[in-house]
Design a protein that fits this description.
Two copies of one chain form a homodimer. Chain A is built from six helices and 13 strands. Helices cover about 30% and strands about 25% of the residues of chain A. A four-stranded antiparallel β-sheet of chain A has the order 3-10-5-8, with no helix packed on it. A four-stranded antiparallel β-sheet of chain A has the order 4-9-6-7. By secondary structure, chain A is of the alpha+beta class. The longest helix of chain A is centred in the middle third of the chain and has 26 residues. Chains A and B meet through α2 of A and α2 of B. The structure holds a DNA duplex.
Chain lengths: ~250, ~250
DNA sequence: CGAGAGATTGATACCAATCAAAGGATGTGG
DNA sequence: CCACATCCTTTGATTGGTATCAATCTCTCG
């Protein structure tokens, strides 16, 4: 998920391969990493506790639904989708993760992951072994405080995201999805109006509880109405205000 | 929300007025209250930090959408609904709370409540002033640990509740709602199969993103199909298995 | 008892799913 | 580098589920 327009990446760093990675100060793990002194060489923080910039290739899974929760992750670059398999055996997408965002916080309490997590593109994550936090040598007080900050923000974010989508029609949901994505990318310093969707139409449809065909038709309609323009997975928002009107 | 059938209230205590209250050990605040020694007389915990069994009359609000978060609450008896007012000015129900459940955890990080909270019936809550926790005289370590436990469970619970409802049709959503309610009441020691709904059909409809009429029709259909029987707001689940089949 | 809110039921309209087919994109092996 | 297979996407025709409009009925409470 990288910008397609005039880049203005105040909180990201361009990499050689054309992708960008989020800076630590804009990452959801930052509260912990600050306590850990960013695991600087000589800090005494070993890879067994915090692995940074672990490469994950497109399509491969970081963990599976039901598996033991050994670590939580922060997206450093690239993007991920979370999915569960429903009773009929097909996949339902339950979330997307962009750089800077935390993955697996919901599994901390129960010690099991609730979904399977796959990279939508070639990506990098930081990987924090919670069970070893206590051995880090850092003050327990500070570690706990950082965890409280992370958990508190997660509770708030998950409340906000779930409350909205339920009572909306297809068009409202798609507009909300696009605007949310745009805001999340903007926080990373990308241009609000130029997005590259790393996920397929089917993934979007599944996430929003719609059919592929409906999503496709809605994109066509939004384009006809000059609210967006798109070619393939490259998307430009032409009228943010118009979109937020539709959003409800 | 009290049982209407043969009561078997292993974790609740019957009160003089016919309602029941949840025991502390089954309450979401218990991790904190344990640290605070249940605010027993002589424990040094004042009412300024933790008020127990605060009465709330039917229809009155504990707090309003957007208001400063001064405390989190646990339902001791009765029940509550959380709602937000949407752009068009009408109310959308975003949650229901039963005895033992925590309210306002999502407001801790941002210091503002995200919804208005009203009692569905004459109720009681315990009220915890977070800002005064540090002054309780109890070890900070223990307090932080309790907060982490509470937040972690909340993250997990809010994930689980949001993931499901999105891609389901009206019947599936209503069945899921009824079965979830039944389980929540069962955890309190009530009979799984006899429920008294404290909320109106409109509240249920709003919460599930359906119209009043659809909810009413669905109840009629479930009754015709011998899956439930109901008179007014008294509901009996006749075929839990059949309902969970429908649930998807 | 009467008033007003809540709940049910029916008729109709509309939105989105499904079925169906064809048009692009992507990747692989020859 | 091209041919082919496969997956993804778009568009059309039809069906079905749910909202909406409208009328009646029920319950609660003053």
């Amino acid at each position: 998920m990288s910008s397609t327009g005039p880049a203005c990446l105040s909180s990201t760093v361009a990499l050689a391969n054309g992708t960008t990675e989020v800076e630590c100060r804009h990452c959801g793990l930052d509260p912990i990493c600050m306590v850990l002194d960013y695991a600087a060489p000589g800090s005494g923080i070993t890879e067994a506790l915090l692995s940074r910039r672990v490469a994950v290739s497109k399509g491969s899974a970081l963990f599976f639904e039901g598996g033991d929760c050994e670590a939580i992750f922060a997206v450093k670059s690239g993007s991920f989708k979370a999915s569960v398999s429903d009773p009929m055996g097909d996949e339902r997408v339950v979330g997307f993760y962009l750089p800077g965002e935390l993955i697996g916080v919901d599994a901390i309490a129960g010690q099991h992951y609730h979904y399977t997590l796959r990279a939508l593109e070639s990506s990098q994550v930081c990987d924090l072994r919670l069970s070893r936090l206590a051995d880090s040598g850092k003050p327990m007080q500070d570690i706990q405080h950082a965890m409280i900050e992370i958990l508190g923000k997660t509770v708030e974010a998950s409340y906000l995201s779930s409350a909205a989508l339920m009572q909306q029609n297809a068009e409202q949901r798609l507009c909300a999805f696009l605007l949310t994505l745009s805001e999340r990318l903007h926080r990373l310093g990308f241009d609000r109006d130029y997005l590259r969707l790393a996920m397929s139409r089917s993934d979007i449809a599944s996430y929003l509880g719609l059919s592929r065909e409906t999503v496709s038709r809605l994109f066509s309609r939004l384009e006809k109405d000059r609210l967006i323009s798109m070619t393939g997975r490259r998307l430009r928002l032409l009228d943010r205000h118009g979109l937020s009107q539709l959003q409800g």
